[in-house]
Structure formats: structure tokens, C-alpha cells
Amino acid sequence: MLALAPFSSGSLLLVKYFLEYYRKVNLLAAKPRPSPISLGIRANLAQFALLVGVNGLVGALVGQERSFVPLLGERVFAVGSSTALMLFIVSFGLAKAGANLAAGYLAGRIGRKNVLLLGWIAGIPVPIALMLAPTWTWVIAANVLLGINQGLAWSSTVVMKIDLAGPRQRGLAMGLNEFSGYLAVAISAAVTGWLAARYGLRPEPLFLGLVIAALGLGLSVIFVKETSAHMVLENGKTAGKGFGEVAALASYRPVASPPRRVPAS
Asked: Is the Cα torsion angle 226, 231, 237, 240 positive or negative in sign?
């Protein structure tokens, strides 16, 4: 028994050092690490600038149609009926309104990037349909697809920029988004009008639309990154409001104001 005493004390010392070592390792592993994700336009400048450009392409696609389709209706299809023209306007508005609503609903379920890709998939056939349209009905159908494209793609780029910018720069993010989109609308409309005056209504001006849609889809697939993690970083993993509750707050239900602090006398 006495001969085993040195061995037993050495074994206990070894076990003690072993446990102390792994306790330190566990403490280091449990120590919170800095997140690789940051909020702010400067911290996400490359991705933010890319989304500004992508939204410019979204605007360019609608800008082309807005300058091109009235001429197509007048000179090719001789559309003189106010009903037919009204249907053209209403179809776009209804499609875009529904797509805007769907974009907000889907962004948190399938991801912002996937909503953007769905928008570009809807936009690809638009210039092709206008190029080949044998009747005004084809133009209306292309207009519906364009409304879906605008609702999904434009809305998703807005949400993604807000995710990246964080709470302090949301206003600037929105301003840059709208600036790039509507500037592209104006430039695209002017270029399409010049192409139509130089080469005719079809098909040459619509090749520009094909390039815009293909470039937008390609950039979105290859370079645009999902931004949901930035939203989680800002808000945590707490459950957000449901779709019905948000719809009620945005329409008829008043938002409770925070209690006002009365300064101490």
C-alpha cells in the first residue's frame, strides 16, 4: 500500500493539470467572438454599391418600356381605344402592387436574394414578348410581367440596402436607392427613344432591354449576397411581428406611442 502512494499522488496531480487545461480551453471557446458582419454603408460599401447598380438596372428596364410601348401601340397596333390604354396602365399597377406585397412577405421566408432573382426571372421575357408581339394582348401580358419584376426586384433591393445600412443610415440608403432607380429610368427612356428614331421600333431598341435584364440577373446570381444575417445582427433572434399584424399596423390599427417622460421639477 505504501509503495503505491507516490504513484497515486502523481496521478492525481496529472489529472488536476489535465482538468485545469481543459477548463481554460472551454473558457476560451465560450468567449464571444466578434461578428464578421458589420452594419453601415461604409462597412458594406462594395455590396451596397452593387445593389445600387442592380436597382438602376431595374429602373432601366421600366424606363425602356415607358418610352417604347406608347409608340408601339400607336404605330404598330393602332390602339386608339381608351379602354385598351387604360387596361395597359391598370395591369401594371395591379401586378406591381401584388408583387410589392409578396416581396415583403417572402423576404423573411425565402431570403431577400431569392426574391430579387424571382423578380429578374419575371423580367427576362419582357423585351422578348415586346419584340415578337403579334397583338396588343401580348403587350398587356409583358406589362404584367414587368409589374411583377418591378415589385419583386425593386422592393428586395430596398430591403437589402436597409439591412446593410443599419438603423442610422436607412434614410440615406433609401435616398440612394430611389436616386439610382429613377435616374436609370430617365437615361433608359432617352436611349430607347434615340434607338427607335435611328433604327425603328422593332427589334433593335429591345436588344437594350435584353442586355439590361440579362446583366441584372447575372449580377444578382453571381455577386449579390444574402443580407438576412445583417437584419439578425441588428434585431437579434427575437420573433418579429406576423404578416397580419404588420398589415393592420400599416393600415387601420394605431401604433401606441411610447410614454412621455415628465422632467423632474
From this structure: negative
Task: Return the C-alpha cell found at 189.
Answer: 427612356
Element (H, E) at 64: helix 45-75
**Long-range residue pairs from 230-239, CB within 8 A, at least 24 positions apart, any chain:** 230/37, 230/39, 230/44, 230/163, 230/164, 230/166, 231/163, 233/35, 233/37, 233/39, 234/39, 234/163, 234/166, 234/167
* Within-domain flag for 38: no
Could you please report the per-residue DSSP string of 228-253? HHHHHHHHTT-----HHHHHHHTTTS
**The domain spanning residue 100 has which CATH number?**
1.20.1250.20
Range of the domain at 178: 45-236
Q: What global pTM score does this model have?
A: 0.79
Q: pLDDT tens string for the chain (265 positions)? A: 444 455 466 566 655 665 565 565 555 554 555 557 788 899 999 999 999 999 999 999 999 998 888 888 888 888 877 777 788 889 999 999 999 999 988 998 999 999 999 999 999 999 999 999 999 999 999 999 999 999 999 999 999 999 999 888 989 999 999 999 999 999 999 999 999 999 999 999 999 999 999 999 999 999 999 998 888 877 765 656 666 776 676 677 675 655 565 555 5
**Considering its fold, how many domains does the chain have in total?**
1
From the list 52, 42, 55, 49, the residue with the least C-alpha distance to 165 is 42
Label residue 148 exposed, middle or buried (CB < 10 Å: 0-12, 13-18, 19+).
buried
